[in-house]
Model the fold of this input.
Amino acid sequence: MRSPVAFPKLRENHVAVAFVVVGVVILLPYLVIPSSDDLSSRDVARIAEFQHLRQTVGETIWPGFGKGQIPLALVKGKMEYLFDHPSPPSGYKPVRIPSYPGAVFRRKGHTLPRLAMTAIPVGGVLAALMPDKATFDQVASVLELNSDSSVLEAAMSGGVDTVDTAVYEVVAIHEGFHAFQIKRDIARLQRMSDLPPGSLDEKLFAARLKEAEATTEITKLLRVESRHLALALAAGSPGVRRDEAQLFLEARAARRQATAAKAEGLTIASVAVHENAIEWCEGMATYVEGQTCRLAAGNSYKPLDLMAGLSDFYGYASLAKSKDWSLDRSADMASHARSYVVGAGICLLLDRLGAEWKKPAIEELLPLDELLRRALESR
Done:
């Protein structure tokens, strides 16, 4: 899977560790983040809360997400722990943890040769992959965070050395949703994300796209586009919402055409495929993040009692506020990060239009803007 979508590419002879989060890659030597190999009661509480949160609010957000079995692989020190996997591959040994309601296994070594937050196949089953919380804190503290593109980037509320555990939980939900959305057909998703035949290679494409989007013309067009999406979401009447949604699609088509004309080798099709793939994968997962924050902040959701013993858990209410992005600012973001925000915005708009979009999004791998176009045509 190419790295802008869901899975990091694996290369031989890694000298450093790449920690991938919300489109940001940080190269770190393996030994800069010391971590005990043994699970603590806090580690167990966090993974139990992840599953409890997913199972409690997930079905409301997306049919099947709460009920389905989604394993989680936790990297801690030199060990990898596997939670709730139906049939662990050879090398994993069972671990008895009375405070955890599901099965836990562990092995020495890592499935990936680098640290990442993603979804990976483990024994033929897609699992969310997370580092332990101490590693998560250390890496987050060196990121230059921008509050527009992810819950992680908006919630360093515990200080420079600590991230609120609620952030950790919701990022795990994001990666767990990747396991849910992708599990049907990884190869088909790969084809969806591949640039059209004859396109530039990925590195050159990214450079040319960055060059085009740095121009004043394209920046202005991006602002028009994102403004129409914001107005559609904020509309007080169905008619205005539909009108603004249509203007958003028209502005998007005009901006893609202008972008393709700005740099040699870009085409309308390649720009569309690039954006659609990230919006489908990361935009939908970011939408699930935001809906999880909203529901978990409500009075009806109760975190596990185990969470009361964590001094870095402040609840979900502040995260719900951090998910109220300004789409107007998305025009100033790089293409990859912008697609998280815009993709999530399109998902919310589809909800507000009353569209039945979630089943075809997963089963047919339809781009979000195509689902929006169909929703507008059907009424």
Q: What stands out?
A: The longest strand covers residues 125-131. Residues 268-296 form the longest helix (29 residues). The CA atoms of residues 84 and 103 lie 5 Å apart.
